[in-house]
Amino acid sequence: MKMLIPAVITLALSAPASAQSCPDILNGSQRKLNSNETVDLCETFKGKTLLVVNTASQCGYTPQFEQLEALYQKYKDEGFSVIGFPSNDFNQDRGNEERSAKVCYLDYGVTFPMMARSPVKGSDANPVFAEISKQAGVEPRWNFYKYLINAKGEVVATFPGSVSPISSNITMILESIIFKTK
């Protein structure tokens, strides 16, 4: 019995170390859109299936915010989240963050997490998109490029801006990921 107690304690102490590891995509924190508040990505999103999207407030695809919100509302209780990253890499998110926030929150009623504007491609890409591009082998080619990431932090699918967030292309893969353990 005395030998069992140290073994149990050792096991208990080693479990949190592995549980605390975070996928590379979620290492670090990001500032929220038009806010001084930051989000610890690992704490907030670890273990969730994610659709990470580079957004723009003045793009022909900007109305996709409504569909992204619908997707978020439909699956948010199933361990899923959309995360938006506004970017002016394609010169369609001009103006300040306040203007971008107005488009997202007021014009389209977005409630899913939106991060501060940042580059999403090239050597200046924010750390999330740098890791996504490394894993996927492709960086955003235009606004509203979508990356589906499983709960392990692995990019499992990419979709160009022309693909609707609520298309069967996305929802079939998403449902196969989030419902496979149920």
TrEMBL record:
CDD domains: GSH_Peroxidase. The active site is at 59. Residues 11-179 form the Thioredoxin domain. One of its GO terms (molecular function) is peroxidase activity. GO terms for biological process: cellular response to oxidative stress. SUPFAM superfamilies: Thioredoxin-like (SSF52833). Keywords: Oxidoreductase, Peroxidase, Signal. It comes from the Bacteria. Pfam families: GSHPx. Residues 1-19 form the signal peptide. Belongs to the glutathione peroxidase family. This is Glutathione peroxidase. The lineage of its organism: Bacteria, Pseudomonadati, Pseudomonadota, Gammaproteobacteria, Vibrionales.
